Amino acid sequence: MQRNLLKYIWTHSRNQQIWIFVVVVVSMPVYFQMLQLPKLIVNGPIQGDGFDSPGATQSFLTIDLPFSETLFGRTVNLFSGVQFDRQQMLIALCFSFLFAVALNGWFKLYINTYKGKLGEKLLRRLRYELFDRVLRYPIAKARRVKPAEITSVIKDEIEPLGQFFGDAFSSPVFLGAQALTGLTFLFLQNTMFGIITLAIVLFQAWIIPLLRRRLLELGRQRQQTARKLSGRIGEYVQGMDDVHLHAMSNRARENIWQMLRRIVVIRFELYQRKFQVKFLNNFLIQVLAFIFYLLGGYLVITGRMDLGALVASIAAYKDLPAPIKGIIDWDQQRLLNQIRYEQAVEDFANTHIMPGARQEASETPVEPIKDGFSFDHVTVLDAAEQPVIQDVSGAISRNEAVAIVGNADSGAEHLAEMLARLLVIGSGRIALDGQDLERVPERLSGQRIGYADSNIFFAGGSIRTTLAETLPYTEGSPPIIDEDSKNTEFRVYENEPIPAKAGVLEDESFGREINAEWPQGDTSEHLLSIMHRVDLYDDVLEYGLLRRLGDDADDDIKNGIMEARRSFASDQSGAQMKGAVEFFDPAKYSQELTIGENLIFGTPVDQAFSPENLPSNNSVRGLLDQAGLLSELFDIGVEIARNNIELFGDLAEDSTLLQRSGGPSPERLQEMRIALEKLDGKTSKSADEADRDTMLALAFEYCEAQTRFGLVDDAMQSKLLTARDSLRTMLEKEHSGAVAFLDPESFNPALSVLDNILFGRIDARRIGARERVLKAIKTLLETSGVSDTVFHIGLSYDVGNGGRNLSTNQAQKLKIVRALLKKPDIVILNRALSALESGERMKIIHEVVRMGAENGQRHMGVICVPLDNGGWKDFDRILLMEHGRIVSEGSPEKVSERLEAMAK
Amino acid sequence: MSTLNDDVAMLRKVPLFESVDPSKLKLIAYTSTQLVFDDGEEVFSQGSNGTSAYLIANGEADILSDSGDKQVVVATLGTNALFGEISAFCDVPRTASVRAHGPLTLLELKRENLMELIGEFPDVAVEVIRELARRLAHTTSDLAHVLDKQNSG
């Protein structure tokens, strides 16, 4: 990787840099004109130079051939111009000025935009290149680096470079030319002054790098400390459990504080140095003026120099400081950015990365593995240079099921990791189908070899995307950047230079997040069978039950769910379920729901109709008032408050009984007490607005089954039912779609699949009712044929950051599903399913081994490093390992004695 | 569905709570949980650890004692009967199994709530002590009676 920033910029944006320079040069005459014209306007038309007589005219837009006087000895006039009188001239010049201003502005706009775009695109390239390298880090290195530090480098550290890219070449060339012109001009005016100026500039060029040395060192330190800071913050966030468990928070504070302090110290010194250098620069340049005045003045007074020459020299000098200062600033930027760049890419460039060919995509489908692995005198060393595998030779065919058996220090799991290339071998050779494993492209190993260990990390996303990302993709792939950056011609000015898509899933129906029917693809069928085998089907099905179907759900699914609802309801008459669920019935008041829920009798879509907003909802209140219910509900509210005070009024505020009973909070109780005192005897009409709202809110959230104050009698129930009907009529007319009503005959998109089937509340008074109901529903789904669909919906379940929404059991099973879904030729199970209880684990592994040999012929090789002693008969061959060596191998019968000895 | 007042009325019929102030009984009722069992469903089994006392709100419950391999019904309790209160007051395993005899509705009184109540209202404690003492006297006289019989027999 290129370590010199300027070279890097030049390599990747040569043409653009030249273009910027050309545009800058072209814009200069316009700029000059913009400065020149005001002088012409004042001198000419305003002061009247050249317009001495009233009728005098001057020519405008005269164009002479440049350098014609030098070349031909006379002015060659190309265009004699237009004759204007004084007023016409004023107007013409002013408009010319306006034109020059606009044109100059446009040039500035163009140049700045162009530079910005160039910077961003080059930055994009650099970031891509760095990430490309991370993807090709050797596995050991990738495990060692701190994620937050890498992120910090790619995201933040190189960010300021973007500002510099556009100015990298045009700025110094342009400023240099300006300075050189100034200097030459000065020399022409007065050689002595020229020499003095040159001397001062050379002195600057010598002293400033000296002063800067410390500055650059500080820049380096600043970057390193900042990177360490982000690494450390990342560590603390990742290990937050430990921070709390071991009360390390203050230690963390101290640690981070020290780092922040250090950064301030560095930055402060950096500022000091920076401004010191600036001060010196400015000072030296102004010293020149001092010398000019003093020396020049002295010479003029003593008559050794004439005044005109001094004035001309000073005039020539005045154009010098700005470009010199610009060059010095640019150089400082260059050095700081060079360091920033060096620091950022250092670690990336020093790491020996995998050859790009190993990850290259290809349009030809990969060939299946024919023979399998062979390894020859392989030795693997651990981080402490101790051998974990010693001089192991052998072969594992793709047509056999092999168990590699050994205890924790036997090297069995290292052997499995080594075959999966998660471990780099120290010496010896491993081959796959005769080809050196090092050279096997990842797309082959990735598609034809499945691997699962006890790791439970998932990057996030839904279960479906988690699965889909491991499946083979069709052609098309982003570039892999070669060591010398050739072959990867992403030109800077294409809009989307990288074909960023790595193709599409071969089985396209699988990856889509859809609510429609279960995809009919091959992958889906295969997934179902695997999910059943590893016993994950039911878990996903449950996730599916708890999800809501979108509005766009397929009618067939809705019908299937409605079918399930009907059969569940009719099944309720069976002895098993009796009374476990209270069904929603629009013609019945439900004791399990609050008064508010009973009124609305549906799921609010518009938040104005949510339970907590209901009491203050004007249209609901108006309707209740009309029915005369508002005052009755107010009375119920008062009654609830009274009951609560009676029950809990005597309890101490911190009473655990109060907290545990699910009664109101002390604050709420206090609120009720105050409201009651204020209300004393008042009716709904005469009460305060606020108190009335409090009481109504109490009434709306009152649930008879929960609180049992016996406040909703039959008469009240029928009134509420009437109100429910008129509310529904009103809502359908005026707020269509605000509430998804509970209708036994139609699917409710605002409810989860489970609630849609259940269409009621599970009786909380029955122990274990929920489990029984769930089980019954699952059976029902199975018989009504929508089970797979609900399972499919469940695949949209979010696995969470790092897979944390999954239990360890589920995550480990999902790892196996991923390993199997791609239909590998060989699957490696390396102490997989460690979180499962032994019996279940052995059952699943047995299933997997058997799955590879259907119809009596083995089509998928299995390499298993088991956790349990037993189930040997499943395997064709057993490798016994001890202390990094294979000590025995053969059929299960052959090594049975040693196996038993080992088990003891 | 029973209301709190129904439950209070029921609690008052239980000797243990007979003389406890009605407002406190209401609190007991409020903190209790209703449970429903179908015929033959087990409420708890002998030897298990439990910390709740139960009051039969509706229905009947069989008290079963393990005898060898099978269980023998030693008693059948009806509405308003309280059981399991021994485990509720002190840490002893259930001395018998209880099973629903027909549909059964129970009021579960949790130990921590009972204890809290006693802690908060000493009056309740006095009533409970009085009742337990009365029971002890009863049991003692029963025992004396049995011993008498044994001696004379």
UniProtKB/TrEMBL annotation, chain A:
Keywords for the protein's UniProt record, in alphabetical order: Membrane, Transmembrane, Transmembrane helix
Membrane-crossing residue ranges in chain numbering: 18-35, 89-111, 164-187, 193-211, 279-301
Origin: domain of life: Bacteria
Domain ABC transporter: 373-903
The UniProt record lists the keyword Transmembrane: yes
InterPro entries linked to this entry: ABC1_TM_dom, ABC1_TM_sf, ABC_transporter-like_ATP-bd, P-loop_NTPase, Type_1_exporter
Domain called ABC transmembrane type-1: residue spans: 71-316
Chief location: membrane
Record localization: Cell membrane
Gene3D superfamilies: ABC transporter type 1, transmembrane domain, P-loop containing nucleotide triphosphate hydrolases
Membrane topology, from the record: Multi-pass membrane protein
Protein name according to UniProt: ABC transporter transmembrane domain-containing protein
Species of provenance: Hoeflea poritis
From TrEMBL, chain B:
Keyword Signal attributed: no
SUPFAM superfamilies linked: cAMP-binding domain-like
InterPro entries: CNG_cation_channel, cNMP-bd_dom, cNMP-bd_dom_sf, RmlC-like_jellyroll
Entry keywords, A to Z: Ion channel, Ion transport, Ligand-gated ion channel, Transport
Organism domain of life: Bacteria
Domain Cyclic nucleotide-binding: 16-135
Gene3D superfamilies registered for this protein in UniProt: Jelly Rolls
One Pfam family of this chain: cNMP_binding
Name the UniProt record assigns to this protein: Cyclic nucleotide-binding domain-containing protein
Taxonomic source organism: Hoeflea poritis
